[in-house]
Amino acid sequence: MRLRTQYCGVLTTDFDFVLPEELIAQFPGEHRDGSRMMVLDRATRQIEHLRFRNLIEYLRAGDLLVLNDSKVIPARLRAVNPKTGGAFEILLLEENAPNDWWAMMRPGKRARIGSELTLVNLRGEESSISATVVGTNEEGHRRLRFQRAARVPLTNFDISDVLDQFGEMPLPPYIKRGPGNSAAEDRERYQTIYAREKGSVAAPTAGLHFTDALLSEISSRGVEVCYVTLHVGLGTFAPVKADRIEDHPMHYERFQVSNEAAEKINAAKYSGRRVVGVGTTSVRVLETLAREHGKIVPGSGRTNIFIHSPFDFRVVDALITNFHLPRSTLLMLVSAFAAPSEMSGRELILSAYAEAMRARYRFFSYGDAMVIV
User: Fold this and answer.
1) Residue 309 and residue 261: Cα distance in Å, rounded?
2) Domain ranges of the chain
3) In CATH, which superfamily holds the domain spanning 76-166?
4) Residue 251: its pLDDT value, please?
5) Rg (CA), the chain
6) Which of 8, 87, 175, 188 ranks highest by number of CB atoms within 10 Å?
7) pLDDT in tens, 203-223
8) What's the longest Cα–Cα distance across the chain?
């Protein structure tokens, strides 16, 4: 007789929670640093409720604040099939080479290999730029080749250079906007104030709360600031579909770390100063390099690190983040950070989330902030 083996690991359903729809932030707050901020002390399990502009009270001289300076591209495009009149939505995912992109398309079944589509600009007018479907992958994404019509001469054409004329900000699906009707403020507010390196198709949302004035005050208090780059992909928001979290195939994301940033981070760790990660994206970069090299090394690469309990954090000592989706890898990372090297972080975070719901915090990308110290 075969005995049934009981699974003793962590299930995806362990990270489920029910969120009232009205708590999903649809628009940014009036002021970036006016967002509410929950502070969770891991040692005492105490919670405080403040505003993000009060962050300075939880930073101290000598701390190193690490931010992700990736810039969100207007990656959502519209197109039509000139032969059938059918309309398509294109969401750029990753650039392979100039004018060569992987993309998610709707309706995907009609985007067959060989289909040649005409891009539509933000005014709804057909353009001289076409996108040809040249391949597919196992995930159902389409590989697109962009080109401008031969009758319109243009040297060194690159679709990346004209995205502002054609693309909308790639807001996540829980933020409701009509087709072609993204709010004017999304171009500014779904972007950190320090965004520099183009490449993300989703915002590193923990950084959306910072203002120039707040960063200036933080620096004046003796807190160092440095930047790393991780280009955020759509997989960031994808729910874990596997029953067991360890069976989830983690997505890859591109990152880059400068010599200056590497030197600052290593110096902070060597001298025992706190490294404060802004967002799960910064955490993934730092913890990836620490595992691969034993320290932070400059350069570029790709990471698919999946951080979940139990996890020994080697670099990051405090975390600034937002409130994340149920069953997401981001929620699992935050839970691991709440109790490093232990399995109790999930209960602590879900209890904090329950408190946030009772206090009517705003959740997800345009929502409020959480600081874990």
Assistant:
1) 27
2) 12-72+186-372, 76-166
3) QueA-like (2.40.10.240)
4) 87
5) 22
6) 175
7) 999 999 999 999 999 999 999
8) 75
Determine the Cα–Cα distance for residues 68 and 197; give it in Å rounded to an integer.
Answer: 9
Annotation: CATH topology of 12-72+186-372: QueA-like (3.40.1780)
Q: Would the CATH topology of 12-72+186-372 be identical to that of 76-166?
A: no
Give strand pairing partners of 356: none
Confidence bin at 181 (pLDDT 50/70/90):
low
3-state secondary structure the chain: CCCCCCCCCCEHHHHCCCCCHHHECCCCCCCHHHCEEEEECCCCCCEEEEEHHHHHHHCCCCCEEEEECEEECCCEEEEECCCCCCEEEEEEEEEEECCEEEEEEECHHHCCCCCEEEEECCCCCEEEEEEEEEEECCCCCEEEEEEECCCCCCCCCCHHHHHHHHCECCCCCCCCCCCCCCCCCHHHHCCCCCCCEEEECCCCHHHHHCCHHHHHHHHHCCCEEEEEEECCCHHHHCECCCCEHHHCCCCCEEEEECHHHHHHHHHHHHCCCCEEEEHHHHHHHHHHHHHHHCCCCCEEEEECCCCCCCCCCCCCCEEEEECCCCCEHHHHHHHHHHCCCCCCHHHHHHHHHHHHHHCCCCECCCCCEEEEC
Cβ–Cβ under 8 Å, residues 370 and 348? no
Give the span between the Cα atoms of 326 and 346, in whole angstroms: 12
256: which 2 tokens?
A: 């880059």
Model's pTM, two decimal places? 0.93
